[in-house]
């Protein structure tokens, strides 16, 4: 709210003036970005967020399957349409897609539950796709095929609060000992010294997600951990090839 000060000129009659920002038609310059996840992707929840002031709906492609994000995009647009049909106020909500980037993550744990890793126990990290949705306390999928080329005995690997040490390398697996136990969840990030040596900035998954985002006509594309001009140019060319427009 704005109040007239004691120095208001006489031509304003020295009246107390109380004007709202809306009455002054001052635009709200700050924008609110909300990440839509599996628990908030319903039309009803999205409508509530829009009414509360959400300007941009962000979808993080590092999590969940493509089908989930496609449904979320449809729900966002339906929520906007619902609000516009019941209100005279224009609603404009942008959709932003955040790519996975050169992250390394574990797969889905069985039942979607958390798993507790016990100190001293052996854990097998595998690139075998058969375990992508079947992780447990003994074997967990890791979405980094090149890890077998960069892995060396003694390397420390971190998953959430757990710390592993690499003991042995097999055809599709690396065997580790749990140095420090901890609770891990589906799709937790994996880090470790030297582990990104061969990890490319734009993976096949990233490129497929960008293509899907363009085909769905999203408003904003956030390319995670982009570290070179070549990657930016590659994204621009891909957007153009998919029929998208660059502002």
UniProtKB/TrEMBL annotation:
Record's keyword annotation contains Cell inner membrane: no
InterPro entries, per the entry: Pyr_Knase, Pyrv/PenolPyrv_kinase-like_dom, Pyrv_kinase-like_dom_sf, Pyrv_Knase-like_insert_dom_sf, Pyrv_Knase_brl, Pyrv_Knase_insert_dom_sf
Coiled-coil regions listed: none
Taxonomic superkingdom: Eukaryota
Keyword Metal-binding found: yes
Pathway entry: Carbohydrate degradation; glycolysis; pyruvate from D-glyceraldehyde 3-phosphate: step 5/5
Residue stretches making up the Pyruvate kinase barrel domain: 29-242
Substrates-to-products reaction catalysed: pyruvate + ATP = phosphoenolpyruvate + ADP + H(+)
Cofactor(s) required for function per UniProt: K(+)
E.C. designation(s): 2.7.1.40
EC class name: transferase
Single GO MF descriptor: potassium ion binding
UniProt entry keywords in alphabetical sequence: ATP-binding, Glycolysis, Kinase, Magnesium, Metal-binding, Nucleotide-binding, Pyruvate, Transferase
Recorded family membership: Belongs to the pyruvate kinase family.
Annotated protein name in UniProt: Pyruvate kinase
Species name: Laodelphax striatellus
Lineage: Eukaryota, Metazoa, Ecdysozoa, Arthropoda, Hexapoda
